[in-house]
Structure formats: C-alpha cells, structure tokens
Design goal:
Two copies of one chain form a homodimer.
Chain A lengths: L14 H20 L3 E2 L5 E3 H4 L4 H6 L2 E5 H4 L10 E3 L4 H11 L3 E4 L2 E7 L5 E10 L11 E10 L4 H17 L5 E7 H10 L7 H8 L7 H10 L4 H11 L5 H11 L4 H19 L7 E3 L13 E7 L7 E5 L3 H5 L8 E6 L1 H10 L12 E3 L5 H16 L4 E3 L9 H12 L4 E4 L2 H5 L2 E6 L5 E5 L3 H10 L1
Helix pairs in contact in A: 1-6, 6-12, 7-12, 11-12, 15-18
Family (chains A, B): Belongs to the class-II aminoacyl-tRNA synthetase family.
Catalytic activity (chains A, B): tRNA(His) + L-histidine + ATP = L-histidyl-tRNA(His) + AMP + diphosphate + H(+)
GO molecular function, one term (chains A, B): ATP binding
Chain lengths: 467, 467
C-alpha cells in the first residue's frame, strides 16, 4: 500500500472545518423550517434514465457512473451503466414530485378521507452532496454539498417574496452585514432584447454577455456584444435600460417607459412592482435588496423573477435563485406539470466568505472543560461527579484519559490534549486538593491557575463559561 | 422515458420520514458533543486501494465502483476501477488517523509552537451514508446511514465507560424506557474457550454459535457446536460459565473462580470489574446495563470490552460497539498504530423501534399556523404583519399562496394545503373581519372556529401552541 490519500477534488472535513459547516447548515435549516420548508433527502445513486439528457452534452460528460462488483466483469467498453451519482438536487426534486405528487394517502384528520401525499404547494429544502467529474481547481470540487429551497406548485408572487425574505434573514443570521440581493426578471430581459430589435435566437448569448457586467467594464461587454453581431443602435437600446440608476422604484419606472412597446417587459415590470410592494409589507429591510437590470443569470431555464446575493467578500455570488415554471415538466419526463421557484445557497462560498470576513471568531470547538483524572479511586469519584454535574448544566465537559496504571506522564498527556482541542479550562483535583476541599482551575487561554472550593466548582465554572 | 423510479434498496425520505430521522440524528449529535466527540465527514468516493482487502472476500464483492463518463469507454471487462463508494465509516476513520494523526500545525494558543492537527485521543462522531451492493430485502438497504462514535488513541477503561454512559443517555433521551446494554469481554471469551480445551483455531466459529443464544434455545446452540466438533466435556465447560446468573457482580464473581486457570479470562474479568466500578461512580443507572457472558459479537476484530443494546421492540440490536486495539493499524496500512474503542447506533433499526413503540407521537411537521391570504392590499399588510410577528415569536407560520388574481377557489386551495401538511391552526382575516378588528382562528384538529381580537392575535396563538 502506497501513501494514503483521497481522490482529487474531494475533501475530508476534520472537526475544525465540520464545526463551521454544521453551524452554517444548522442556521439555514432553522430559517427554512421557520418559513414552512420541510426536509427532503434522495438517494446518492439514481437510475441512469432519470439523469440522462437532463444536463446538456457538457454536463452529461461529468456524471459519475456506478457499477456493482458483479457487473464490472460484463461491462462492455463505452456502454452506459444502469446507475449513476446524483449531479444536482433539481432533477431528484422533479422525480420526487413526478412520483409522489399525485399519490393519495389517508387523511390524518379523517382516515375515511384521502389527502395528497405531498402538500401542494410542496415547499422543501434539501442539503446533500452532488458529484461532478470536473477537473478539480480553486473552489471547484468533484463532491460538494448543494443547499436548495424550492416551492413547487404555485405561481403566487408571495413565493418569490418569501424566498428573498428568508435569504435576507439567513445572511443576517450568519453575521453578514454588507450584502445585497440583486433582483431582475426574465420577461423584462426578453422584452428588452425584443424591443432593441435583436433576434430572439440571440437571447441566450446576449444574456451571457450581460451577466458579465458585474466583473467587466461596460465598454468591454459592448465590444463582446458587437462581436456577436449587435449594431450600435441595438447596443444603445440595451445599455440605455441597463444603465438606469436610482432606487429600485426609480429603475422600474424608467424601464416601464423605455420598454412601453413590449408586452413581456411590462409583465415582468408589473411582477417586480408587486414583489417590491410585498417585500416592504413583509418588513424586509430594503437596504438588503435592489432591482439590478444587469443581472441575467446564466441558466436558461428561468421564466420569471431571478435573484442573486453578493457580499463584501471576494468569492462571487453566495446564493441565487428564481422562477422556473416549465422545468419540472421537462425534468420529470412530463409526469408533473407544475410551476416552481427556488433558491440555492452556495455553501462552500458562504464558508469562504465568512472566513474572509472573520465571522467564525466566536465558534468554539467541542471541548469546554477538561477534568483531569489520576486513577486514585477516592479522587475518581469526585472527578466523575464534577463532570456529571457540568454536563447536566449543559457544559461540554470531558474526563481526561490516561493509560493504566497512572504515571506522571498521564498528566502531561491530558494537558497536551486540552491544548490540542482548545479547551477553555482544565480542572485538577489531586489527593492534596481533595484533602483541602479544593480544586485547581486552570484558564487555558491565560494559563493562570487558581484554587476554587470543590463543593461549588461546577456552578462556578458553568457560570464563567456562560458569562 | 418509462415510469419514474429509484434503484432497489435505496429510499426517498419524504418530509414526514425526514422529520423523524432528523430528530433522532439531532438527539444523538447533542449527546456526542456533550461527551466531547467532534464531527468528521469524509468523501463518499474513496480510492480503490484504500478499500481493497479490508472487508473480506464476501464484503469486497458488495463494493460499488465509480467510473467517470470518460473512463467508461476505456474500461476493460473485469478490470478494477480507481475509485469506489464508501462501504463503512471505520476504514475512512483509519485513513484519516493515518493521514493527519501525526501532522503538526501552529498552536492556536502560541503560534510559535506546534501542536497535533488531530487531538490525541481523537474522539470523533461520523453520520454519513454507506453503500453496499447487497440484494435488497426487509431492513436491508443498498444505501443507508451509519452513525459511529469512536475514540482513537487511548487504552483507558474510561473510554468504554463513557461510550456506555452516552449510549444509556441517548436511548433515554430518545424516549426508550425498556432497554439494556449487554456487556462482555473478548479476553474473557478467549480464556473460556481456552480453558474448555477447545483449539484456538475454532474460536471464531464457536463465538458465532454462542452469539445465537439470544435467538435460539441453549439446546439448539449445543447441537450446533457439537456439529462443529466440540465434545460433551467442552460443551459443559462452556455452558457452565455462560449460564451464570445473578447481578453483574455475581456473574463476574462466578466467572472469576470458574476461569481461575486462564490469564486472558482474568484480565478480561479485571477490566469488566473496573468498568462496573466506573459506571457506578459516573452515576449510570445500573437498570440499563448488565454483564452478559453469552454476548459474543460476530466481528472478529474486537480485542477487549464488547457491548450491544437491545430494546423492547422486535428489531434486533439497536446499537453495538467495543474495543479494537489492532484494527486501526491494519486498516491504515500500518500508518497509525493506535488503540481504539467505539460504538455504532443502528439508525434504521432505532427508527423502526421508535415507530413500534410509539415514540414519535409528539413530533409535529413543519407547519404550525397558516395565515390565509386573499390578495386585497389593505388586508395583505395585516396578514404579513401577523406572520412576521408569529415567526419572531419562534412559531413556524406560513402565508397561504394563491394564484393571481384571487378567486374564491384560492381559499379552498389554502385550506386543503393546511390539511395536507397537518397545520395546527389557520387564521382568516378577510375584509369583514378587518372592519371588526377581528381574526377568525380555526383549530384544524377540532375544526372549531372562533373570533379573536386582531391586535393580540399573534400573542394569543403563540401562547396556545406553547402551552
């Protein structure tokens, strides 16, 4: 056996990293639940036919195939396998809605009646890894978690409103101070392209260029678009709208009059106006969102409102979403025809951003208090009671371990462990301390040590940790 | 595209099931952390050489291989692939300890010093899916979660003590009233076999038969052992010890005198005696554990204390563990030579047991209060404020969604949704109610409806839910 290792593009998450990941995931879950989203998990291994033809030619090349040991021997070169690893969480959602969306079960309130197995609308969140056989690189992994919240089965603009509200609440809860949810609408962009006299066939490529406006200066994007065959009049028409400035209401007002000739644009503007009204009525602080007509979002399946969150950290967007009213039909193979709208939090980027912004400063590792242990039976009892009392008070207390029988090296080992794991305090009760009814309390940050009364040691330590 | 479906032996966890799973996992995590265990996650895809030769011939056949799309074309029949899916959580733990166990990093307390990247002992928990290409059947899945807590790097009997203490605490916290942690020791069993005059080469097969004593009557097990070549004297010597009855202390006392001639047995008995003393000193209720000399545990890698938890539910053991002081060396390819002891909770069986025992009765789904919405701007504002206030009070409140513009069907849809999702209350504020400064509160369990003052509606509802 050579050196131990993992596959490129995959990661071991050791405790210090896991504690950060779990903190972010738990914060998001709490907010998802508060807004009425319910958890869903699907298998890592999907049938190939569920994934086939869903991710475009380039995407499909990145799918990992799964082969049982028995089938390895019979697999023919170039043959597709029956099973493959999950590539995203949207296709599994469409499959779940297609399979169970119309299933009826006994009504819990009245067993004689039937009710839908999945509520409609179905509001679910899903936080699971996905796999892509991409070339690994800075911030690009072959195994990474996606973290999605979607509503399937409603066209109400309240859906977009609540997804944006929960996005704002989530980033505030994670400690972000400076972030913006940029909002736009696919119908507005469609109308803009239409009214600028650009052929509808060019819509996707024009949007791809517009989407670069957050990284490139407008002149460069104009040049790129000219290279795609747009003339000066068309470019002027586009940029006149994109360059609109002011409050969200002012930008929409400007677009309303400039795009008066496009029915699609007017529909988009109408929906965004309603969204702004609802966001205000729901009390979402307008400092955290704004209409941005340069937001295009690469993926071509969006049909309505689109949004994307950017922060002060240099990591790119930390979350994005939008309405996609035709995708569930396509992805479920026509088994479910339901409108949908969702948002996705970029877990790895959020972690990188929080690291950059110093938002993990107060996160502690698992250990809080280490009670050293010497193996003397009378003393053991006292140490055990102290640990038990601390744990009952909600403190993460540990007993020091030593080899049997106890040797002086055992104490050095235990203090080394306390240091490696970042404990706040160590408590030492030896035979001497016990005879005096005392314990030695060592603050492992300042390295100062003091004597405290044994009888009230647990209370005193719990109090200091929680102050 | 044919019918939608999943691979046999895998499962979609819809919200009602997920809520139960998350409840159990969150309960276990809280207890792991309290005892100083830290989270670890490793990639689903491992290098083949990490897994090869670790699970025996039969186990290895169940491993799923992973192939990128590009490699499908060049894969030769029968050829092993470079990568495969995780089969358990113990081999990845050994790999992690082998890779990072001796790595040094800057000491957080003093950057000029170096400290170990992983604390020693390393106390980690890991809750992740594993994959096995087994034939699916009742309670046998191809993708299922394992839930392990292990301590690597200490021979202290405090490790076993705390693992059993946390096991008892976990099952109590999950609501189990009637359960037992059965405890035995591999050295005691080894000494028993030795002293009965049975060849050491027969140890594994004899233990396999003894392990069946919880399902088969002693006569059947005797018959099976006789079939394996044991004579009457050997069988009597075995069963004289196994049949010892009484308190844990009495059983150990009996074994101590019957197995006086075996050094291994006396070592095992000495360690179990210390364990009982420590469990009592730590205040673990002795109603929940006992020495059971018929417990053998199938896996042959255990070297010391072994234990297994059984409950009143008919699902088999719900958890098990033990000390395995040589396994990390073997599994890490000799990169780490550390003693270890761990426990594993059987998540699927725990869920089945809790279902059987009715321990999920009080678990609620995501929805608590649905505030119906009619789309009238003035009323909207009131509904939004009500939802916002309820959420701030920690209530899982949702706004009803309806298609725009609102039609009378919208109200029926919203009440249908409330029913499907099991909400406790629906709140209705229409123009009439608003004019009277009232809201209609419908209890969705009793289906009774009453008028409440709008101004204090949020407080009143939050109070009822929390009472």
């Amino acid at each position: 056996m050579g050196e131990l290792g993992t596959m490129g593009g995959t990661r071991d998450f050791l405790p210090d990293e896991m504690i950060r990941r779990e903190y972010v995931i738990d914060t998001l879950k709490t907010i998802f639940r508060k807004y009425g989203f319910e958890p869903l998990e699907t298998p890592a291994i999907e049938r190939w036919e569920t994934l086939a033809g869903k991710y475009g030619e380039e995407g499909e090349k990145l799918i990992y195939h799964v082969v049982s040991s028995g089938s390895l021997g019979t697999l023919k070169a170039g043959e597709r396998t029956e099973h493959a690893l999950r590539y995203d969480l949207t296709v599994p959602l469409a499959r779940v809605v297609g399979m169970y969306g119309d299933q009826m079960v006994a009504d819990p309130a009245d067993p004689k009646k039937q009710t839908r197995r999945l509520p409609r609308p179905f509001k679910r969140y899903q936080i699971q890894p996905v796999w892509r056989g991409d070339r690994p690189g800075e911030g690009r992994y072959r195994e990474f978690h996606q973290c999605d919240a979607d509503v399937v089965g409603s066209t109400s603009p309240l859906v977009e409103t609540e997804l944006i509200a929960l996005t704002v609440e989530a980033f505030k809860a994670l400690g972000f101070a400076d972030f913006t949810v940029k909002i736009n609408h696919r119908q507005l962009l469609k109308g803009l392209i239409e009214q600028a006299g650009i052929a509808p066939t060019k819509e996707a490529t024009v949007l791809t260029s517009i989407d670069k406006l957050d990284k490139l200066p407008p002149e460069k994007v104009r040049l790129e678009l000219a290279g795609k065959g747009l003339n000066a009049d068309q470019l002027d028409a586009l940029f006149q709208v994109i360059a609109l400035e002011g409050t969200s209401e002012q930008v929409l007002e400007g677009a309303r009059s400039l795009l008066a000739g496009s029915e699609a644009a007017q529909r988009g503007i109408g929906e965004l106006t309603k969204l702004l009204h609802y966001l205000e009525a729901l009390g979402v602080d307008s400092a955290y969102y704004r209409i941005d007509l340069a937001l295009a979002r690469g993926l071509d399946y969006y049909t309505g409102t689109i949004f994307e969150t950017v922060s002060a950290a240099k990591v790119g967007s930390v979350g994005a979403g939008g309405r996609y009213d035709r995708l569930i039909y396509d992805l479920s193979g026509g088994k479910a025809d339901l409108p949908a709208c969702g948002t996705s939090f970029g877990l790895d980027r959020i972690l990188a951003a929080m690291d950059q912004l110093g938002l993990f400063a107060s996160l502690r590792r698992a250990g809080e208090v280490l009670v050293l242990h010497f193996g003397d039976p009378g003393v053991s009892q006292v140490c055990f009671e102290l640990v038990r009392g601390l744990r009952e008070a909600g403190v993460r207390a540990e007993l020091g371990y030593h080899e049997e029988p106890f040797t002086p090296n055992g104490m050095r080992q235990q203090l080394g462990y306390a240091n490696e794991k970042g404990f706040a305090y160590a408590v030492i009760v030896g035979p001497d301390e016990m005879a005096q009814g005392q314990a030695a309390l060592r603050d492992l940050t300042t390295r100062r040590q003091e004597k405290i009364p044994l009888a009230t040691a647990g209370q005193l330590i719990a109090g200091r940790l929680r102050s």
